[in-house]
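Forwarding these from the shared drive since the link keeps breaking.
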Amino acid sequence: MSGGRPVLIAGPTASGKSGLAVALAERLGGMVINADSQQVYAGWRILSARPSEAEMARAEHRLFGHVAMDADYSVGRWLADLAQVLEDCRARGLRPIIAGGTGLYFKALTQGLAEIPPIPQAVRKAGEARLEAAGLAEFAAELSRRDPETFAALDPANPVRVLRAWEVLEATGRGLAAWKRETPPPLLPLAEVATLRIEPEREALYAACEARLDAMVAGGVLEEVAAVRAMGLDPESPAMKAVGAPEFMAHLAGEIPLDEAVAKAKLATRRYAKRQLTWARQQMADWQVLAGPDLEAALACLREPGP
């Protein structure tokens, strides 16, 4: 790539990814590209902690807030959007700085993504109803009979994984394992990128999460959530999965007081950050690790073995 090897920056929420990405883009002549599944949505500027206007003025940013709130946006669509942005970077000699907290985006980007057709909402609802009625053990046993190859590779105690495998089989007539065998090459193999993973000390990260929630409330997040609530979106739609959205929605509906909503949102954010840390340690063990969003430390990592 004419602008230099792409840089991938992963890390939990409130770890300083956005600031580091901007600083690197300034230093390296780059473009900041979003890899966060909630920052893509137009309605979640505050709640998803999108980069500030000041940060966005320092370097070009792409794939932030470009998706309608009612869109069923997916990893596959993000990869397609990203491919176009990468072409733009190549044409203009800009170095891609891809930053975010959605591990599945990075996994699909560097390992490839099976091109499974979208699952119809009716199939998804039917699977959820079947799982609830039968229970996980019986539901998983049915999947093992119908698709033993896929079942052998998944955790039968994980209802999300079992349900996903059932949905794919039901909707396409082919098992998830069969689809994965046909996974195309990754858009950016790990050998062709520089990787940075921010892993802060846990208590400091939790404190940053709580401070961010307080700043969101002071910055108008309730008005933002109210505007989204007025859209009448399906609570199960992807955009409504944003951390903190259910709690603030409940407050606006008169179900809980604001202090309780904030406390619950802080707890949800801490739990989300913990899951992100755990996932990254397991799935990104070979990425270069930073204790914080330090520009000079990041540049030192990029010089080993060299961008």
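-- next protein --
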Amino acid sequence: MLNAMLTGKTALVTGSTSGIGLGIAKQLAKQGANIVLNGFGDHQTPLADIQALGVQAAFHGADMSQPTEIEAMMQFAAITFGRVDILVNNAGIQHVARVEDFPPEKWDAILAINLSSAFHASRLAIPAMRAADGGKGWGRIINIASVHGLVASAEKAAYVAAKHGLVGLTKVTALETATTGITCNAICPGWVLTPLVQKQVDAKAAAQGISNEEATRQLLGEKEPSLQFTTPEELGDLAVFFCSAAGQNIRGVAWNMDGGWAAQ
């Protein structure tokens, strides 16, 4: 761990008590980064899992729909670890309905958590990133968008709008930091095998009386040509790559990990 690439850095990953966020946090921790977790539900188990990797870890339960709580979280991270070197904007929620039936309060919540929270966290992280490395600047902002930041699906108006907006925010942030040691990029996954998605597969298999493998094929076959899930660990490995020396001039990209979904 002493020679790990990110030793001495601190990563804050929003929405990281389970699923994609926790997978990314673990991969960053394996490279030596101290971790600030955020999310709802049980946080003691993921916190212990991160600490078992030999790094320091802390938790802040900010509601990512509330700018004041995001500010408190960023202050907590700065007080605990000095500054946020790596910001992973992952927090997200979903609701499915046709436009004319979409509850306005669900629209507002999805835009707040899936898009505005990334803006607030980024604006608060960038000043310390600019001051890093003796004023040369160093930082990594990684926005977890979605293939729905590039293409649309019916009945997902708010999610698609937010993720398209997140890709746009990524590009603007990258341009504004282009001459510094700060980079900003987006990762755009397709289907990711999280516990929540596994429950969907299990439910489909039970409802139709088919095997888990067939239920998986049906789910992926609608959109993802590879018929293969992306894993949270693979997303984490891409985040690590963005943090490496090889990623220092990758700026403003929306990097698909979607099994060919957007290539169709």
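The longest strand covers residues 182-189. The mean pLDDT is 97.

- D.
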